[in-house]
Write a structure and sequence with these properties.
This is Acetyltransferase. This protein is of the alpha+beta class and 400 residues long. Helix content is 24%, strand content 32%. Helix 3 (31-39) runs antiparallel to helix 6 (185-191). It binds acetyl coenzyme *A.
Length: 400
Amino acid sequence: MNTYTVRSLTPDELTTVPRLVASAFLADYAEEEIAAKDGALNADSTSLGAFVGDRQVGAVRVQERGVRVPGGDLVMFSGLTSVAVAPDYRRRGVLTALMRPVLARDSLAVSALWASESAIYGRFGYGVATESTQHTLPTKSAFRPGVTADPSAVRELPRDKAMPVIKTLYERYAEKQVGALTRIEGNWAYHYYDTEATRHGQTPYRFAVHPDGYAAYRGKPEWTDNGPRGTVHVHELVANTPEAYTSLWRYLLDIDLAATIEYEGSGDDPLVQLLPDTRTALRKRFHGLHIRLTDVAAALPLRGYQAPVDVVVEVVDSFCPWNAGRWHLVAADGRMTVAKTDSAADLTLDVRDLGAAYMGGTRLSTLAAAGLIAEHTTGAVAGLSHAMQAEREPACREVF
Ligand SMILES: CC(=O)SCCNC(=O)CCNC(=O)[C@H](O)C(C)(C)COP(=O)(O)OP(=O)(O)OC[C@H]1O[C@@H](n2cnc3c(N)ncnc32)[C@H](O)[C@@H]1OP(=O)(O)O
């Protein structure tokens, strides 16, 4: 059994993290990209290393960020990134050793991450809380009758002119959109990091801006015997009104010399609803933000609830044992109180499944249908599942 010293990294040691990350991720990052990633971590971020003697064999970086939750509040969470273990120390408990202080009792009540592989984090109590949908569809598709759009309200702006405008538009969006993250300057720089190496033969980002939304996209020209068959790859589309949404899509669908649009939207992105034949858009769903309730009693009251509920839940949590046990959850007027109880449980679930349901996208009923939640009182799962659901699926479109 290996034991590791886990501690905060000194500024000198921080400079070695990118090498560790590159070796773990089978990658070779440019200095510039490393600097962009570093810049996304604000002054409050922490970086932990796992050591064997002097050798650093693992790292994790934790940045505090905010996410909009059901009910409209902003919840601050610990965002994990750059999790890396030296290839010659994999599967020897390094990540487990790093996760102990990261998920300590006194940390923020909610932790979140984007996983390289979903299979890694369930054991640490993370559930898949948002999903994204990859769309591939032909350009020039007409809209179904009744959809109005005004693409003449869309203007292409150069990056320097577009950035301040889209930041303001995004702030408006993130005020309301469940799943949207707060962004500091460094997050913007990283999300829009744009060099030859990251373009894969596509153009730099282009910015189509509407008074109430924007689309950032790249183009990839292709010439065939049958004529132009280019691709438009939409990096981010933000719309604060239905008119902005339809107008931006009309604009993107009509771009000349392109045959295909690729776009990763939210789980229930309304794009296909615009089309007369929804099958023309092929859709694939992928996992998104993973959520872990580090402190169940503190985390559940931070969000809103769409229906009243009064239920005793037995939580199973082997990694953060202070969460384990029976909790009396009472939601009324949109808010929830949580108290420890000795009463019999109405249902039993793993903490990862509460994390999955936290953003209102994943239904507890779906998890129960997979046999993952034990119901002891008929209707208890349906009641809590309904109360936790959000009006729409959460949309988290920024990988950090
Ligand atoms: C938020 C992010 O940054 S996501 C990025 C994560 N990093 C990467 O994918 C880079 C490449 N991989 C790595 O650096 C490492 O292999 C890590 C971080 C994924 C895992 O680190 P390790 O030190 O090997 O994990 P550790 O030994 O603590 O494993 C703990 C348990 O998780 C399991 N596990 C670890 N990695 C995986 C995986 N990729 N898939 C499935 N199970 C896994 C182990 O089998 C072990 O299970 P057990 O307790 O039943 O024996």
